[in-house]
């Protein structure tokens, strides 16, 4: 498969944010608040999938991981610290430049690439992650199929994405962009996928969903796992059988 899934306008939008991607108070502040919650879920699924001790600090040692739509490396770097050989790919060359610079400063060896996932050399990965990306591509079905093609036998895939509900339209698109919580133009509500729709795409790509949970606002922590899926959700999948 080599169909293009990158939306050039989306790539340009996120590339323009590259310079302060790592600033927790900058334009990516929302991602910095989301990331610890995502990481908690990813770690839980890693432990369950590979029967890893929860106290093991390098649960991905000896395994490979790819973060698709990696931005400037906010998730790729923790995956590397968990012991994985990490590849990161993003549509925006500006993000990849920022990711490489930051990883070098942290002493982390991460293989970063700009461009289409299909353009990477043939390889599969034990862990495939893609956070808040599927709602930005031109063809979600092709994109999910590309992700599935990169998942090694016995591997684990974890995605997160906003849900297409009236609440997400009100809070994630209209209110969040109006008050500046996320940059204007970040979200197109019509592109959001309901959990059933994303599940169908995963199953059509030969995967089975093994877990799903809501990701919702928390007055105490900013965000929390569990509870309502009305705004956002995380989904874990593996090959069928």
From TrEMBL:
SUPFAM superfamilies: S-adenosyl-L-methionine-dependent methyltransferases
The entry's keywords: Methyltransferase, S-adenosyl-L-methionine, Transferase, Ubiquinone biosynthesis
InterPro entries hit by this protein: Fumarate_lyase_CS, SAM-dependent_MTases_sf, UbiG_MeTrfase
Top-rank taxon: Bacteria
GO molecular function, one term: 3-demethylubiquinol 3-O-methyltransferase activity
Catalytic activity: a 3-(all-trans-polyprenyl)benzene-1,2-diol + S-adenosyl-L-methionine = a 2-methoxy-6-(all-trans-polyprenyl)phenol + S-adenosyl-L-homocysteine + H(+); a 3-demethylubiquinol + S-adenosyl-L-methionine = a ubiquinol + S-adenosyl-L-homocysteine + H(+)
E.C. number: 2.1.1.222, 2.1.1.64
Binding site for S-adenosyl-L-methionine: 38, 69, 90, 131
Pathway this chain belongs to: Cofactor biosynthesis; ubiquinone biosynthesis
Protein name, per record: Ubiquinone biosynthesis O-methyltransferase
The species this protein was found in: Sphingopyxis lindanitolerans
Gene: ubiG
């Amino acid at each position: 498969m080599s169909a293009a899934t990158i939306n050039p306008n989306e790539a340009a939008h996120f590339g323009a944010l590259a310079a302060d991607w790592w600033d927790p108070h900058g334009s990516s502040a929302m991602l910095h608040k989301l990331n610890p919650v995502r990481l908690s879920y990813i770690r839980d699924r890693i432990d369950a999938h590979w029967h890893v001790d929860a106290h093991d600090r390098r649960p991905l040692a000896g395994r490979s991981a790819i973060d698709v739509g990696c931005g400037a490396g906010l998730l790729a770097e923790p995956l590397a610290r968990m012991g994985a050989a990490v590849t990161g790919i993003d549509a925006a060359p500006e993000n990849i430049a920022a990711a490489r610079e930051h990883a070098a400063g942290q002493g982390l060896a991460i293989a970063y690439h700009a461009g289409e996932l299909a353009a990477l050399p043939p390889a599969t990965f034990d862990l495939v992650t893609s956070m808040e990306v599927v709602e930005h591509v031109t063809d979600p079905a092709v994109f999910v199929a590309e992700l599935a093609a990169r998942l090694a036998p016995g591997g684990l895939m974890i995605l997160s994405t906003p849900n297409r509900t009236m609440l997400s339209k009100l809070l994630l698109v209209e209110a969040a962009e109006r008050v500046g919580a996320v940059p204007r133009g970040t979200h197109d509500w019509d592109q959001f996928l309901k959990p059933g729709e994303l599940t169908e795409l995963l199953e059509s790509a030969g995967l089975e969903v093994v877990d799903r949970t809501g990701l919702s606002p928390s007055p105490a922590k900013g965000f929390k796992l569990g509870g309502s899926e009305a705004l956002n959700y995380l989904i874990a999948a593996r090959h069928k059988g």
